[in-house]
């Protein structure tokens, strides 16, 4: 992996999220629900929710990345798992910050399959190796991305094994 980084500032995130919402709107897609993939997707989902006037936001907690280019063998859906009854028959827009391998998005998209009317994905960044081709992508890159919400270390470090607490 190269040391070159894609750097997203808060200001550029504002532009990116607005342009992402404009792509969804221009496509004529009208989501009933925005399903955020935590944690990075929370910011994207909130911004899309405001821009697309969607108040029904849901959350999927997924653990996959453990560090820079370090992952678990497979992504894991953590509790509380969204209730498929709440999603049933809806147009769902899955929001995340990046489609890197695509494994997290695939997990969430497959979770929705068979329960929703339509499911589409919106991400700020998509990498060429992603196994999921997102319908809405602000920018494509091969670089590691420094997001404004995850560049600095945590203020408090939680004990190892905090996954799923």
From TrEMBL:
* Alphabetical UniProt keywords: Glycosyltransferase, Transferase
Protein's UniProt keywords contain Transferase: yes
Q: Which SUPFAM superfamilies match?
A: PRTase-like
**Which residue ranges does the record assign to the Phosphoribosyltransferase domain?**
6-151
Q: Which Gene3D superfamilies match?
A: 3.40.50.2020
Please provide an example of a Pfam family that matches this protein in its UniProt record: Pribosyltran
> In the record, what terms sit under GO molecular function?
glycosyltransferase activity
Name of the molecule in the record: Phosphoribosyltransferase
What are the leading ranks of the lineage? Bacteria, Bacillati, Actinomycetota, Actinomycetes, Pseudonocardiales
């Amino acid at each position: 992996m190269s040391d070159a980084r894609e750097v997203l500032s808060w200001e550029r995130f504002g532009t990116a999220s607005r342009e992402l919402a404009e792509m969804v709107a221009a496509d004529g897609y009208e989501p009933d629900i925005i399903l955020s993939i935590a944690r990075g997707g929370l910011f994207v989902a909130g911004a899309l929710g405001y821009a697309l006037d969607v108040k029904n936001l849901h959350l999927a907690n997924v653990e996959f990345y453990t560090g820079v280019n370090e992952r678990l063998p497979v992504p894991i859906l953590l509790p509380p798992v969204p209730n498929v009854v709440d999603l049933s028959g809806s147009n769902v827009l899955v929001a995340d910050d990046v489609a890197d391998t695509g494994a997290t998005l695939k997990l969430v998209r497959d979770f929705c399959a068979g329960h929703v009317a339509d499911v589409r994905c919106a991400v700020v960044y998509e990498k060429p190796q992603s196994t999921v081709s997102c319908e809405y992508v602000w920018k494509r890159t091969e670089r590691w991305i420094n997001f404004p919400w995850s560049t600095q270390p945590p203020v408090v470090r939680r004990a190892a094994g905090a996954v799923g607490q």
